Amino acid sequence: MGVQRNVKKTSTPLLSGIGLLAILPTLLVSPHARADAEDPLNLIAGVSVVHDDNLFRKPSGSEKSDVITVSTVGLKYYKPYSLQRFELEADLQDHRYNTFDYNNFTALNYAAAWRWSLTPYLHGNLTSDRKESLNSFSDSPDSGTRNLRTDENQRFDGVLDVSGSWRILGGVAQSTRTNQASTPELGTRLNTAEGGLRYDFPSGSSFSYIARKGQGKYFNQSQSISSTFSDNRFDQIENEVRMIWPITAKTTIDARAAHISRTHDHASELDYAGNVGNINVNWAVTEKTSLNASLGRELSSYQSENSNVVSTDRFSIGPLWQITEKTALRGRYDYAQRDYRGSVSDRVDHLRTAMIALEWKALRTLTVSASLQDERRNSNVPGQDFKSMQAGIAAQLAF
């Protein structure tokens, strides 16, 4: 498909960034515009503007820039009823691209949960969430086509407290990813059932084991993959151990290790198996500074002509400095190495992202922030290197 030419914008944003900023003063002086942590219902309105100097993640000399405005309205609801607790976060996001406006879209996102409890010894969660976003242009073969991704998850789980510190775990879940257009990271629907045990120590530490078995299917198969196999179903088995360890009052480690295996009845060349996991460290250095760090490995399907699966090793670190009661400075650095596996693939990518953001709570109801982000990729495949600089400002009102 050829690249669409820029067209003059004729559509009107659902929520104009300028219009939203115009109503902020009215909301701020309203006697009801007060965000309170104890209120069960809070309303959110916000706008962000980001300049991206390489929107389509192209090599040097082929960059195209754009300004993206995102306007948001939403709500948060948290309410306990006896042993039950209900939670809802929902928002409507309007994404507008100043130049390449065929990428415009409006997304409805939400996360809902019922923290149920029949007795203090039998409890669990019923959750559902949905998130819509634009697929990354770094892996898109055609920058002239909008390609939206929608992730939806539903889950029911339970915990039965038995014999002091022992817990029996169980649950069922469905996760669905759909893409508007074909992409190497195919859309999937995966249904899983799980069961396991957890031991909670008096110190606050816990150790658990969970076994998961799932069945899934692919969506949005490319033509080359469709011709490879007609049965798009697969089976997935995962065995996981997890440890949560509060080393001190200020430092906590959350570690997970698992072995995952995906098999296809009629396309064994698409099978993969391996070890995955992550370790996260959260450290409250002082009253005003904190640090979180993460190290992990992932395996996922990546169906291209030259590869079937991609393994990703990640490292990230994020410091926070609460300069004053109203001002905070955040930073984050992410590094990832992606190895593309297949019969003829030897591609290896190195991705680096550095971000710094300054947040200011201007009023009780209003938070303003500014950020700067540098993103780079180096690959052993010619034409896959890129670098992108993004600068943005944002304002959020909660009442």
What does this structure look like?
The chain is mostly beta strands. It has one domain: Beta Barrel (Porin). The protein has 2 helices and 18 strands. It has an 18-stranded antiparallel β-barrel. Strand 14 and strand 15 form a beta hairpin. The two termini are 46 Å apart.
Question: How would you describe this structure in keywords?
Answer:
single chain; mainly beta; Porin; 18-stranded antiparallel beta barrel; 2 helices; 18 strands
Say how many strands there are: 18
The mean pLDDT is: 88
CATH fold description: Porin
Helix coverage percent: under 10%
CATH architecture verdict: Beta Barrel
Distance between the termini: 46 Å
Strand content: over 45%
- What top-tier CATH class fits best? Mainly Beta
Runs with pLDDT <50, length 5+? 1-33
Provide the structure class: mainly beta
Tell me about the largest β-sheet.
Answer: 18 strands, antiparallel, barrel
Kindly provide the radius of gyration, computed on alpha-carbon positions and rounded to a whole number of angstroms. 23 Å
